[in-house]
Amino acid sequence: MEDVNTSAAATPVDAVKALMLLRAELVQREARMSAAIGDQVQSLRQEVAQFRRDIAAIVDGAGNRIALDAKEAVSPVATEYGRAVSVASAQLRNAGRTVWVWLGTAGAILLMVLLVGWALLGYYRRELTTTKEELQRYEDAVPVVQAFYASDAVICGGVICINGDPSGARAGDKGQYRAAKPRQRP
Fold first, then answer.
1. What are the backbone angles phi and psi of residue 183, rounded to the nearest 5°?
2. Please, are residues 154 and 180 in contact by the beta-carbon 8 Å criterion?
3. 177: Cβ–Cβ under 8 A, 6 or more apart, which residues?
4. DSSP string for 124-184
5. Which CA distances in Å does 71 have to 59, 60, 65, 82?
6. Which of 46, 58, 68, 185 is the most exposed place for a label (fewest CB within 10 A)?
7. What is the full per-residue pLDDT of the chain (186 aa) written as tens digits?
8. Furthest-apart CA pair in the chain: how many Å?
9. 69, 88, 70, 90: which is closest to 80 by C-alpha?
10. 3-state helix, strand, coil in the chain (%, to 5)
11. 61 φψ region: left (φ > 0), alpha (ψ -120 to 50), beta (else)
């Protein structure tokens, strides 16, 4: 019976040893699994970081590439637009010069017309004044001509000779002039 009791007593010790051995194996396995999982997590973190760097590089490269492609696509249009603006600007400057030349010419013609008109007006004013003076002399001479025509008088040797009226009125400050006889009408 002793064998049975010894084997029964060894059994709990063996069982505890077995349990301890099992526990040690479990701890080792857990440590190995934990290390393996840690390695896996570290590897995943490195891969995620590399993936992020790759994505960032792709995005940066894509942005640069898009900008470059856009620049290459827009460059000919911008160049053509620049040429068109330059041509339009040159045409506008030429048109502006032409307009200024026409305005200058029109101004010069207008100034010349005004000067000629002013000179012509001055000439005609002088002529009008001369004609007015001459007309006044003629108007002043009308009573003399009417009196000459109404009197019995003629021109003789550059002077007026009259057929004096002995009973006619005398004129002058000394009464030296005598009225002519009236002309007889036919």
1. -75, 140
2. no
3. 170, 171
4. HHHHHHHHHHHHHHHHHHHHHHHHHHHBSEEEETTEEEE-B-TTSPEESSSS-EEPBPBPP
5. 18, 16, 10, 15
6. 185
7. 445 555 555 677 777 888 888 888 888 888 888 888 888 889 888 988 888 888 888 887 887 888 888 888 888 888 888 899 999 999 999 999 999 999 999 999 999 999 999 999 999 999 999 999 999 999 999 998 888 888 888 888 888 888 888 887 888 888 888 888 888 776
8. 221
9. 88
10. 80, 10, 10
11. alpha
Task: Give me the residue spans of the domains in the chain.
Answer: 2-72+78-84+90-104+106-112+114-150, 151-186
Place of tokens 């013609």: 109
The amino acid at 106:
A
Give CA separation, 20 vs 2, 13, 14, 26, 69, in Å.
26, 10, 9, 9, 70
Number of neighbouring beta carbons within 10 Å of residue 180? 19
Produce one character per residue of 1-31: b if its CB has 16 or more CB atoms within 10 Å, e if not: eeeeeeeeeeeeeeeeeeeeeeeeeeeeeee
Q: How many residues does the chain have?
A: 186
